[in-house]
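Researcher: Final request for today, and then I'll write up notes for the group meeting. The sequence and the SMILES for zinc ion follow.
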Amino acid sequence: MYRREFLKTTASCLGALGFARSSSGAQISGIDAVSPKPSAAGAGGIYLNQIGFLPDHAKVATVSARASSFLVRSLKDNSVAFRSTLSPQRQDNASGDTVRLADFSPLKVPGEYRIELDTGVKSDSFPIRKDVYDHALLIMMRSFYGQRCGYDVDLGGGYAHPKCHMEAAFHASSGKTGLCNISGGWHDAGDYGRYIVNSGITTGTLLWAWELYGASLKDFALRIPESGGNVPDFLAEIQWNLQWMLSLQDSDGGVWQKQSRDDFCSFIMPQDELGPNYVIGTGFAPYKSTCATADLAAVMAIAARCYSSYAPAFSRQCLKAARAAWNWCQNNPSVLFKNPAGIHTAEFGDSDCHDELLWATAELWRKTGDATFHQVFLGMLPQPLSAITVDVPSSTQVSSLGYWSYALARREGSGTAIAAIQQATLKTGRKFVRQSLDNGYGDSLALEDYAGASNSVAANHSLLLLIANQFEPDSSYLDCAVNNLHYLLGRNCLGISWVTQLGSYSLQHPHHRPSVADNIVAPWPGLLSNGPNADPADPISKALPRQAPMRMYVDDERAYSCNEPTINCNAPLVFVLAALHAQPSHG
Ligand SMILES: [Zn+2]
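Model: Predicted protein-zinc ion complex:
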């Protein structure tokens, strides 16, 4: 799976060329000066979610320091709120550490606390509170507003830029010529490209969060320009990208792969990347690509469901687009995309569009109930049905989303197909739970997962576990899903929060052009970096000494293979935060 993610990373390699022209003026050099510094918590050997815990959920810190017992002190009156012994030692293979666990789950009283070891070592303070993750949900969702292209963005605090990339043209590979009036969407990542395939899984994941947890998101204010309108803020922000996706659909229903410059730019602000932004196709008839078109069909079918109450005309437009895209795919089932000559931005190449078509067909059936979609979907399933396997989705492997949509649809489907999908999902969920229990830092990653976009994989493990919990409610799935959140926000061997501006020690130097070019010290808020990568692609990451895979990370803006935020990395973590926001105990 990461291998496919890696295609994106490989394309990003050319970002290094951009760096060579970087306005920052820095030179690629030894990494000693930019190695991650030990965090305050990490220096003491106590690793935990830096933004805190929900009262009714498990609460565990990982301790690498020598100690045998611990207490949790309330900062309000300096009293001891909880005390216990540390677990027996265990070896954590992903980090190479020998660790013990400090489990203080019985402590449920809201407040501000810190952990103290019997050796006198203290952690940073952290809260226990019902709404402890609301701020994370807010800034991670607002980060999509920060990624808007073609808009006067102003997140506050100086994080702003004027309209960018307004000059657009059809690239020769698109089958059309001349200037065009196509703008909008979200910048994909640390670069300014906009890619249908990655937009597909990102908007699909976010819209699914709405479908499962929308009741609690309806009044969640994002403070975006559309706030106060008919459409809830959560949907309004996603709509910004959906509208751009629609504009990449040709009149025959097919969808062009992407819109970008011909190459990655240096570390400049988006408004400074001048010249035509190309609508890019395959370079040969029919110019549009199947995977992109099927992704759009899937997402627009979900959108048709989500927006029907708030923006009926937009909902109808989405359904029409989804049907046209699906029909195009029936006539063009395997038009693959490779970057045409002269184009070097991210490719999102994919040699197999079966999974995208499966997803599109499931979403259209779920929306419409049409027998045609149902029959096609059933015909696409592996036989025997016991051959169905479910793993985490990625940009170019979305079969799980198709399976889940079918199984979650409130329609009369095939009972045997639904049972097979559920069993396959629960099987993978149980595997993740076992891995989480074995791992010293509580995350559910296997050693081989630390290869490309491992933080996105961790967040998508949580997404799968939350879907498993829909099929068969079980607190072990929920606990495991939350454990990955803890891992991403500080319970890891580096003691780092991988979301910018979240936690007492978060990454400072993401491979994110506005964060480098804006002359503000702190990076743009709410961005999840792609994380440790034992298969590094950029010179800075490659220069790291070979270590246990969780340690294959450096907080350096040049290290795009382990420190680039992407919209598809943020989306599954927003999904997890939305699920926690919807918990009955949230209040
Ligand atoms: Zn832009």
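Model: Residues 149-150, 164-165, 187, 192, 270 surround zinc ion (CB under 6 Å). The two ends are 38 Å apart (CA to CA).
Researcher: Thanks, that's everything.
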